[in-house]
Design a protein that fits this description.
Elements lengths: L16 H25 L6 H17 L2 H9 L8 H34 L1 H7 L2 H19 L8 E2 L5 E2 L8 H36 L5 H40 L6 H16 L2 H4 L1 H7 L2 H36 L1
Antiparallel strand pairs: 1-2
Helix pairs in contact: 1-2, 1-3, 2-4, 2-6, 2-11, 4-5, 4-6, 4-7, 4-8, 7-8, 8-9, 8-11
Length: about 325
């Protein structure tokens, strides 16, 4: 540590993030549109948990539609050409996706917990109307938490320049305080609720033999997806985001640490990882709605039949051509 000006490592996010964003955009958009279409086709049969999955898909699509603009931003070597207002909207959509996803995954976890541990109470006390009301509350809470972020400076330059994920160096101290509170309410509390629900579910699955085997498998697969999302996408991003903000505060005070450069690089990597949630979330569809896996199997079966038909047609054509040549 020293009191001189702090040098920063050179790491260009525009070299690594565009391929990730393009892949997530294609996979995530196709998977989420197909999942939402399947849910909406069975609207009259909509179940309690399907309401949360529907909102999960909407949150994903909101973010996915902003990715092409971020691809252009990084391909132009971090030069934002779409204006200050749209920069804030883009970052706001990211936050709605991130914390909306965490909120609705928490709702799904609580529902799974009630369905396995208190099934009678769930059937009697909770309706689709309750699920809709809870979803509206989640959107409102996420919106209220994300709204202050839009009042921080997001761009640098009059027409073209940076589009900050957080804010400029002038307001980084205040933003760190806001980010820590936001992380606690928007991530830590839902994460603890999810861990508590699945911790109890794990105990129930191991101790109660009467639990339905299919329900056990579905719950364990969903647990695996949630562990993947939190351990790969959410935990690294929140830890490294706040550490990077702290290092920026220290750097502004001319207090340098060797770990600051490593945290900066790791945070850039975590930004690529956190956007993967929009491509992984559609896996939740397969394990919370019984009809979606069946429709997916039918779709794959049709595709297999079409490929077999094409293969047989090509084989027949080849045989005819060979016979003609022999004659």
């Amino acid at each position: 540590m020293n009191n001189t000006s702090c040098p920063r490592v050179t790491f260009h996010a525009y070299g690594s993030l565009p391929p990730v964003f393009i892949s997530v955009f294609i996979v995530g958009l196709v998977a989420n549109v197909w999942g939402l279409k399947t849910l909406l086709q069975n609207w009259r049969k909509l179940k309690l948990i399907s309401v949360f999955v529907l909102n999960l898909g909407v949150a994903d699509i909101l973010y996915l539609l902003t990715l092409p603009f971020l691809v252009v931003y990084y391909l132009k070597k971090s030069t934002w050409i779409f204006g200050n207002a749209f920069c804030k909207i883009t970052r706001f959509c990211f936050n709605l996706n991130l914390y909306g996803t965490i909120g609705f995954l928490t709702c799904i976890s609580v529902y799974r917990y009630l369905a396995l541990v208190h099934p009678v109470r769930l059937m009697r006390g909770i309706t689709v109307t309750h699920s809709v009301a809870i979803s509206v509350m989640v959107w409102l809470l996420v919106g209220v938490q994300s709204l202050p972020d839009m009042f921080y400076t997001k761009t640098y330059g009059n027409t073209t320049g940076k589009c900050y994920e957080t804010t400029s160096g002038a307001y980084v101290e205040d933003y760190l305080k806001y980010s820590l509170g936001w992380t606690f309410t928007g991530f830590c509390i839902p994460f603890l609720i999810t861990v508590a629900c699945y911790g109890h579910i794990a105990v129930v699955l191991w101790t109660m033999k009467r639990t339905d085997k299919v329900q056990k498998q579905r719950s364990l697969k969903l647990l695996f997806i949630l562990v993947l999302l939190f351990s790969v996408c959410y935990i690294p991003y929140h830890v490294l985001k706040n550490l990077n903000l702290w290092s920026r505060v220290l750097s502004k005070q001319k207090i340098c640490h060797e770990w600051a450069d490593r945290v900066f690089i790791a945070h850039q990597i975590s930004r690529g990882l956190v956007c993967l949630n929009s491509a992984v979330n559609p896996l939740v569809y397969l394990h919370v709605d019984e009809e979606i896996p069946a429709q997916l199997r039918q779709l794959l079966q049709r595709a297999r039949q079409m490929l077999n038909h094409l293969f047989r047609s090509n084989s027949s054509s080849g045989t005819v051509a060979q016979t003609t040549d022999e004659v």
